[in-house]
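A.,

Following up on our hallway conversation. Structure tokens first:
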């Protein structure tokens, strides 16, 4: 009769086989609040001592994502760097506090663990006492990852509710002031130097200038924008459409769905409009007039809007450029002898300086109309030799300008990502205090978000 003897497996501690391995730790906190700062400092100290005090391990560093939500992998730069270092065989084993700190999405967690296992890299989750080098733990890992994902969504919903309550009772604080304002800890206060530029942008738009022309002038004069080094038409348009310059605030312009994707709020979620929230830079009348001009320009380009109102300006407004100083002309009513009135156009600089900075004289509108008719007839007659080549050249210039602008934004985003990574590295090595790190990291993250929005 056959005799079957069961041979029990040798029970080994999970540390066996991990000797002399390059061991790293991963930590993450999602906010810069005091309790989170203490949590981060405690994690750094714990893992540094834990790894260095083990003579069988080689300290491979601590990777920290601070002030960043775990719901999007692309935002966790240190997490991505850790995975890259594992691929380059700089890390053999990872220790982290919990699954929710490592990944909050079940699919992402399992895919990452499997990828690391193929590289021979294991992960140990302290809270769950789970070692991924034990393949029978994958089912438990899947279950715990799902729980962590639900917990993440619950926290996100709670945060959204708290923010919405602050919207409703008017206690929400704007962390990133627009160009022309500073934040004094209580609210928005006017930055006088920048406010003059804002007033100029609105005034020149009312005179008929386009956003691209205004941006080119500001760049030529060396006036710096709020961020970066170059003015673009998109930045000028953003200023012209920002209600904060009349002292109001529209809250929840964007929203995040259940999959943590951000969208522009076109009515899908509640919006909250606060009137007279702070001191205005431009008048409501000018802001509304500029809005009408922008709508009309859109309709002229085939972009239909909700309003068919035409802005109160004339056929030549913004189209006559002074050959002496480069400013635009404005319409005036002049009086000849015997109190006879006639319409004329004159350079704005000539009016503003009483002729001191520009000697260009008044031009009767009748002469301008006659010159315009002659010019149009000549252009129509010679359109194949003049207009068609000019149109093709303008199309090429526009395409080139858009490509250059896109490249500039891509370069700006890359620079910000490198700054975030360098800052995190300094924090990990103890060269930057946590409070300073969070302040600078939040600023960089805000710039990064705005740069991506501008690029889009």
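Then the amino acids I'd put at each of the 456 positions:
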């Amino acid at each position: 009769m056959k005799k079957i003897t069961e041979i029990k497996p040798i029970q080994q501690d999970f540390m066996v086989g991990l000797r002399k391995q390059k061991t790293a730790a991963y930590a993450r906190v999602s906010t810069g609040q005091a309790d989170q700062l203490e949590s981060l400092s405690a994690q750094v100290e714990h893992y540094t001592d834990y790894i260095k005090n083990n003579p069988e391990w080689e300290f491979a560093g601590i990777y920290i994502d601070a002030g960043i939500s775990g719901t999007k992998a692309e935002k966790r730069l240190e997490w991505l760097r850790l995975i890259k270092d594992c691929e380059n065989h700089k890390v053999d084993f990872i220790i982290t506090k919990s699954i929710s700190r490592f990944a909050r999405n079940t699919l992402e967690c399992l895919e990452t663990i499997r990828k690391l296992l193929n590289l021979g890299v294991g992960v140990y989750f302290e809270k769950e006492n789970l070692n991924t080098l034990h393949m029978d733990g994958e089912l438990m890992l899947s279950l715990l990852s799902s729980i962590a994902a639900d917990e993440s969504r619950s926290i996100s919903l709670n945060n959204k509710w708290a923010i919405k309550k602050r919207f409703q009772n008017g206690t929400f604080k704007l962390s990133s002031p627009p160009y022309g304002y500073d934040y004094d800890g209580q609210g928005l206060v006017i930055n006088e130097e920048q406010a003059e530029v804002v007033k100029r942008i609105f005034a020149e738009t009312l005179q008929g200038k386009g956003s691209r022309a205004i941006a080119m002038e500001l760049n030529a004069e060396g006036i710096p924008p709020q961020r970066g080094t170059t003015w673009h038409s998109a930045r000028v348009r953003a200023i012209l459409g920002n209600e904060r310059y009349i002292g109001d605030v529209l809250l929840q312009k964007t929203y995040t769905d259940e999959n943590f994707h951000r969208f522009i709020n076109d009515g899908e979620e509640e919006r909250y409009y606060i009137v007279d929230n702070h001191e205005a830079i431009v008048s409501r009348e000018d802001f509304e007039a500029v809005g009408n001009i922008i709508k009309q320009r859109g309709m002229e380009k085939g972009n239909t809007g909700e309003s068919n109102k035409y802005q109160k300006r004339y056929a030549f407004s913004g189209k006559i450029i002074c050959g002496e100083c480069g400013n635009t002309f404005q319409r005036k009513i002049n009086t000849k002898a015997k109190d006879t009135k006639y319409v004329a156009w004159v350079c704005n600089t000539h009016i503003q300086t009483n002729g001191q900075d520009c000697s260009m004289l008044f031009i009767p509108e009748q002469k301008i109309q006659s010159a315009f008719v002659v010019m149009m007839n000549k252009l129509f007659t010679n359109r194949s030799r003049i207009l068609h080549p000019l149109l093709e050249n303008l199309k090429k210039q526009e395409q080139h300008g858009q490509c250059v602008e896109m490249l500039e934004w891509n370069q700006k985003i890359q620079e910000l990502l490198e700054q975030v990574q360098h800052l995190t590295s300094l924090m990990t090595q103890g060269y930057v205090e946590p409070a300073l790190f969070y302040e600078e990291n939040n600023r960089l993250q805000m710039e990064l978000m705005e740069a991506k929005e501008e690029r889009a």
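The chain has four domains: 21-160, 181-300, 329-375, 387-455. Curious whether your intuition agrees with the design.

B.
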